[in-house]
Amino acid sequence: MDKLFRGTYTAIITPFTNEGKIDWPAFEKLVEKQIASGVEGIVFVGTTGESPTLSHEEYKEILRWSVSTIKGRCQVIHGTGSNNTRESIELAAVAAEAGADGHLVINPYYNKPTAEGLYRHFTAIADAVDLPIIIYNIKARTAINLETDTLLRLAEHKNIVGVKEASGDIHQMMDVMRRTPDDFCVLVGDDALTLPFMACGGDGLISVVSNCLPHTTSDLVRDCLAGKWDKARTSYYGILDIMSLSMMETNPIPIKAIMNQLGYCTSNIRLPLCEPTVPTMKAIEKHIQHIRDLEQPAK
Fold first, then answer.
1. Which residues contact 33 (CB under 8 A, 6 or more apart)?
2. How far apart are CA 153 and CA 193, in angstroms?
3. Residue 257 located in a structural domain
4. Is 60 known to be catalytic?
5. Is residue 113 in some structural domain?
6. How many domains does the chain fold into?
7. d(CA 252, CA 136)
8. pLDDT single digits (tens) 115-159
9. Can you give the residue range of the structural domain that contains 181?
10. Catalytic residue from among 9, 59, 119, 136
11. Is pLDDT at 1 greater than 60 in this prediction?
């Protein structure tokens, strides 16, 4: 069986107006840039999309709007994770009704469930809504790690088709790629690990930096998948500083400032996050022309 998700998936930002509302024209501009640049898919309302500060009405509006705007031109993945299983099921139902290709479900944060609790949480969502799930394992944001043994149990469910591996533990990442079924998608969730992850058998990337470098990042990942390692290595080292730049402060603070500098949207961000510090802005200004130059070749 072919894997459902392979390639580059941009964890897209949610642009806001100066009044703090969703900036729909800017959002459409961002989406069109991603599609024109050749990404395989877009992830909406993830961490990069500031999902914790969106109202339920805004959240659902984005889920519906994204599918109707993209119209099948690339894959659509919706972030539906929560530390409330019932809430995740409700959002997953909206994503399925809207026509998403899949949904991204993060480890429940703050609750700190046991391994059995994690298994039951993800299984309950998979049972309730017939839509492919990518599990999002990120200990740094959730205080809980999904161990590989538990992931393997979950991979037996027909609706659990992949994992976004952002555990920060390279040994665990390799173990996941080694032990999961052949049709199970393993995507890296850390831009800076793209090359080593792909070299060890990864299927792709859910990316922050591809907000500003969609053409370059998607070409890099396709080169990795094609085994063009010399070309991929050159591309990877050419954008490694920008990958680091996008994580100088809590995501999505830097990437929103970068997209503002590129003219796509405001850098407005919702509390409790706030504007970048002066050193971060100076670093962005230093690299912004390089970002423009990298994305100049149009496809």
1. 214, 264
2. 26
3. no
4. no
5. yes
6. 1
7. 17
8. 999 999 999 999 999 999 999 998 878 888 999 999 999 999 999
9. 7-232
10. 136
11. no
Within the chain, residue ranges assigned H as helices are 24-36, 56-70, 85-98, 115-128, 139-142, 148-154, 170-179, 194-199, 214-225, 229-245, 253-261, 278-294
Could you tell me how far CA 197 lies from the centroid of its own chain? 16
Q: What is the pLDDT of residues 243-258, one digit of tens each?
A: 999 999 999 999 999 9
Q: Which of 59, 60, 119, 164 is catalytic?
A: 164
- Is 108 part of any domain? yes
| 17 inside domain | yes
For residues 139 and 167, is the Cβ–Cβ distance under 8 A?
Answer: yes
Which DSSP helix (H) or strand (E) runs through 114?
none
User: pLDDT tens for residues 200-240?
Assistant: 999 999 999 999 999 999 999 999 999 999 999 999 999 99
**Alpha carbon 225 to chain centroid distance?**
19
Q: What is the pLDDT of residue 57?
A: 94
Q: How far, in Å, CA of 69 to CA of 26, rounded? A: 13
Using CA atoms, how far apart are residues 251 and 10, in angstroms rounded to an integer?
14
| Cβ neighbours for 230, distance < 8 A, ≥ 6 positions apart | none
- Statement: residue 299 has pLDDT above 80: no
**What's the rounded Cα separation, in Å, for the pair 184 and 38?**
23
| Catalytic residue flag (residue 264) | no
Q: Give the 3-state secondary structure of residue 160.
A: strand
Q: Is 11 helix (H, G, I), strand (E, B) or coil?
A: strand
What is the pTM (predicted TM-score) of this model?
Answer: 0.95
- The mean pLDDT of 100-113, rounded to a whole number, is 94
CATH number at residue 97: 3.20.20.70
What tokens were used for 37? 């640049």
